[in-house]
Queue: 2 jobs
Job 1
Amino acid sequence: MAQRGRSQLEKSETGPANIMTKIEAVIQNSKLEAVKTALQEIGVEGMTVLEVRGHGRQKGHTEVYRGREYSVDLIPKTKIEMVLADAMVDKTVQAILGAARTGKIGDGKIFLSRIDDAIRIRNDERGEGAL
Ligand SMILES: Nc1ncnc2c1ncn2[C@@H]1O[C@H](COP(=O)(O)OP(=O)(O)OP(=O)(O)O)[C@@H](O)[C@H]1O
Ligand SMILES: [Mg+2]
């Protein structure tokens, strides 16, 4: 009984659907349109796009942006955030890699993390149904 009680508690703590992943992709600004097109082709619906500044391991010093070398250490980049059903994650990562890679430094990075729940504000839909 104690065992069953604990598993029920765990279930309620993890919410209705512990089956979502957030992808945060930092890409070159010039690749946004190509990445958006690739994402549309595989059926990605919701996304948030942010204008960000950052640097990776070269600390920005040797990167070229719009044809000139940047003298500051934070270079303009684009970040795309998506929360996805897990079944979509692998093909989404492949789509981003295929559209965003130039093979040069500064191409960016993809981060994956777990999402416990989501809620559509309009109608209280939860979990994967809210995406
Ligand atoms: N560890 C990190 N945490 C958060 N953001 C990062 C991290 N690494 C890179 N970024 C973001 O990604 C952008 C592009 O990073 P970048 O592609 O230059 O990474 P890198 O590790 O230097 O790889 P490369 O050698 O291919 O340039 C950075 O400007 C920053 O916004
Ligand atoms: Mg770099």
Job 2
Amino acid sequence: MSSQKLLEVVESLRLNSLLEIAKTSRFWINLISAYGTYKVIYYLFFDPLRHIPGLWWSRFTEFPLLIRRFNGTQEEYVQQLHKRFGSVVRVGPHSVSVKKVVDIRRVLSSYKYPKAEVYEKALLDAEEIFSTRDEQFNRLRRRQVGPAFSTTGLDSVEDIVLDVGSRAFKKKIETGIEKGNGSYTINYFDNFQSLTADIIGELAFGKSFGALESEKPSIIRLVNSTITISVLDTLIPPVKYIPFLFSKYKSDKQKMVDFTSSCIDARREAIEKNEFDKGRIDILQMYLNAHDLDGSPITKDELIAEIVLMLVAGTDTTSVTMTWLLHFYLMYPEVYKKVVAEIDEAFPDRSAIIRYKEARQNLPYFHATVYECMRMKPAVGGYLPRDSSSDGIQLSDHYIPPSTELLLFIEGAHNDESVWTSPKKYIPERFMGESGKELAKNLVVFASGVRICAGRK
Ligand code: HEM
């Protein structure tokens, strides 16, 4: 027998005996025990996060946290973990929850700790300002769209915002009351959602969607479908390639893209025909003038991705906050009375429109009620995930090793007792005066630092 043949026989014997062994339960018990022993030794002596306090399961899995996220109990659960283990708590094999304002602001202060990998899947296929993890790309986009959010930019569109926003809403309510002979039922959340969508429509798409006038605005459905199908694509990748799966969402997403594309064409045409008001500094205009890192003009797909992103980032965040504010006014009538009295005193002429700058200067108590609302009910709640970078980072008493996911816990920061007195109570007065201005710096409702919300003004 040649040596080659001999080797083949030995190999087949090995394989056969291995298959035989694999059939026995003893084999599996031994295998599982060996794996378990390896894991225990690893987590006790070698795991880089072994010094971070947390529940035992967090060394092995993040699953219990995910369940809480999906059933809506994450906030209470994580608050309890922090109460028990301190300001930095391990919540998964590679992730820690961070709740102290100083730690959160430290992480957010620089591009050194980029957005975590979960952001990589953008809403549409092209990279955009929000989901990018690339410092240069983000800097470029923020610079390009920045003028639209500057004081000059916002001044240039204030009348449009007033028209499609407050005036349109006032008219809708007045008409409703008139038709109902003094009685009118309204769903505030739905209407605030339509109102914010219409405003962003004007600023980023070049025209209002008319959502406020419609009973069932299709734009809200298109946005919701776009978000849903993008999440499904990320969670279950084959969904993207099987056309009949979730086809309604897919077709809505395509409609969203086509509609955005037509809005871009319309603006370009208006510019060509000299029909566009050059004094208007809005989001769409800033992006139309933009280019990429290599100097080439921004492509249409990128343009669409940036514009749709603005609608998604700005609509629910703003309308949810407005709804909570109204809710607080109803829960605390004495606060509401003070707000009304402040407005009446500063602006006795009820028929005059109050402009943004005047409101900023003359309505400190009203602004305090908004801050307190955003502290207690941040529209982007839960976690902002970041990466601890290749150097790691010192947070409170803990050194967090490289490549750890830092879950920055917004509600934790907004209830941090070392910063806020009686954090569970709605007390707008805390934001009044000079000390109130200082205190407001501890809010992270719009994140903070280099990736702070571009639309916060
Ligand atoms: C009350 C209203 C809003 C709240 C609470 C809010 C909150 C936030 C938060 C927390 C982030 C950071 C998210 C993260 O890092 O994962 C963010 C980012 C962002 N927001 Fe807002 N937002 C609001 C309104 C708006 C509006 C109206 C727009 C635009 C029209 C907008 C555009 C953006 C953009 C473009 C980013 C990404 C910035 C970057 O990564 O460089 N937001 N927002």
